[in-house]
User: What shape does this take?
Amino acid sequence: MFKLVPFLAILLAALAHAADPTAEEVRQLQVKLMIETQVVAVTELKGPASEYKSDGDPNTLEIVFLERKQDGPSRVADDGEVIFTLQGITKRGTKADRAGVQDSGAA
Assistant: This one.
């Protein structure tokens, strides 16, 4: 599922700039994106999400899984290369909240 969402976002952005692409052009673009784009999952964030540094590679899409509400809501970085997604939320809070983990603010 996560691999499909970024792919569709990139595809839609590319199509918005093209003038009436043919079905074959769309297919070729899909294949090119699937071959060239790498998806990296970051499951254990070191420090606050606001200080996360992307690898800077436009062919890499990074998905950062947040476990603390203090890291903010799910969002996409301004450059579109990093997706931050808040996971493990229930009515009782995140897993870290329930465990009594406190964010010290230190990186």
